[in-house]
Design brief:
Growth Hormone, Chain: A
Amino acid sequence: MSYVSDLRTVLRGRDFRRFFATRLFSQCSDGIFQFAVVGFAFFTPEKQTSAADAAAAFGVLLLPYSILGPFVGVFIDRWSRRQILVIVPFVRGLLLLLAAALVAIETPRGYFYVCALAILGVNRFFLAALGASLPHVVPNDQLMMANAVTPTSGTVVTFVGVGLGYLLRLAFGPEQSGTAWLLIVSGVTFGFTAVLASTMDRALLGPSDDPERPQARDALRNVLAGLIDGARYVMHRRLAAAALGSLTAHRFCYGISTVMAVILYRFYFTHNPEAGLTQLTGVLGTSGAGYFAAAFVTPWATDRFRIETWVTMMLVAAGVLELALCVSFQQWGFLAGGFVLGVTGQSVKICTDTVVQRDVADTYLGRVFSIYDMLFNVAFVAAAAVSALFLPANGRSYLALGIVTAGYLVSAVVYRLVTSVPDDSSSGRPLPAAP
């Protein structure tokens, strides 16, 4: 198993171990927080919910990453990254305590969402600092391995945090007071990241001094122009643009599927909020297993198929199996569907990462990945908003299922047509050992 062997190799470095532990604690806290938001928005007994509420909740969870993403790099390249990892947990902890208080005293839901947006906005700085710091804690010859294992490990630990959030909810209770305690636990867990980060030398994570670096004001002014320039560039890199398009299509379809599943488990499969949340947690578990399985399946598959072939196969499989498994609207079908979309979606993402890193010049890579980040999150939020227009109150919708299936199949056909003629940047090389 290359994932295990790669992880074992990079963990030999002391600095990487401390850095890695910082990341894992932060993403476990994220899992608890995300579960608290979903539980509060959809499964609190005192409140009813709808597809519109789902769109609002997912917007809160994802829009800060989309809007702030391109701009935080300006500051990450100017402030001590180690200090960001030490200070941000305290700021986030205070905001989580405020959010807990707002929930406990039962203020209007909008106040909590504003606070949640601030929490995730602050967290964007933390995650960006982690991403920029990685080259400082591993040797150059291990950087590929470190890039391969850290996203998979972080995703798995986020799902672990979701599971921990579920167990804590059973202990604290489903009422709003229980959600408040979940938020407090998330804050305490995140606080451990500050302790871990403080064990690293202040200068370890950079940034390096650069006398030619432009002033922050000028850099911020240039961000939008840089994004436009990056979009123009990637549109002339056919394979990279097609890969980004396939992932965007997947995220849109996956977003509709997610909102439909949340409403189904809240109002169709059961009318008991706690039973619905318990059953939905099973879908999250199978989806997490699918994400993890993709880390092993995709490198194996792309040793045998071209990347373009594998992406097409995954999009077709997602569309066909989603329809076959879920058309009966039975719970077992959605459990299996969670695993299928986990495997296929993460496989498409791994391939997209590889194509973009391979086919985009290094001088444009940051701008293109900022666009990537925006597309990844905005597509999901847009899907949630669109779902609110046609999903029925109980979530059972053949129309939604048909849109998802058609979306996957159409995106597969379009992707295949666009990539069918190889050029100088043609893919087909084997993927790295893991995502």
